[in-house]
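Thread: Modeling a multi-component assembly for a lab meeting

Hi all, long-time lurker, first post. My supervisor asked me to bring a structural picture of a complex we are working on to next week's group meeting, and I have zero experience with this. I have the sequence lines for every component (228 residues in total). Could someone generate the structure of the whole assembly? Inputs are pasted exactly as I received them:
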Amino acid sequence: DAGVIQSPRHEVTEMGQEVTLRCKPISGHNSLFWYRQTMMRGLELLIYFNNNVPIDDSGMPEDRFSAKMPNASFSTLKIQPSEPRDSAVYFCASRLPELAGYNEQFFGPGTRLTVL
Amino acid sequence: GQQLNQSPQSMFIQEGEDVSMNCTSSSIFNTWLWYKQDPGEGPVLLIALYKAGELTSNGRLTAQFGITRKDSFLNISASIPSDVGIYFCAKKESYNTDKLIFGTGTRLQVFP
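Re: Modeling a multi-component assembly
Sure thing. I ran the full set together rather than chain by chain. Output:
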């Protein structure tokens, strides 16, 4: 089975440009998470969806960031306009429905974003 | 907000040595998770702990959920070069959310 798929793996763009990051969760997983990792702030959750519905977007830095999950197999994270401080590695993770206790989040390989 | 402090920040050890790292929280909760991140990859779950005092092993890895529910440790025995990476602890922000809070990470380097 394929794991979480993210594209692109690397993105270099200029300040002010729109950036769209894509994620395909593992088939059958109903929760999807977007994380950002930087040296200064570590790994932090931006937003997560359950059954395609955004549940908690309190980690989204500001209005320039938006995320959508139009169906169970696809999600996007968009930054418009991008700024140099958005440079980071963005991870997508997915998880099975939580039946009892905790279910493991499976992380994708990440997208390394550089905004010049 | 909640913080998870990990120590040490980094470790440089020789192959074959044992490693110990820990994680402390300012608040209590019911789940501790230990992840490993290889260079250029996403984190992978190593061990999950659900009860205070619980001790769980996964091969050469052993983790314990502290009795106070505010700390956890991870031990790696007989380290090998592929143990290199960053180790993160994590916990749920609260019982009724799926949001995870990650620790600051311990970077492990193993020399042959």
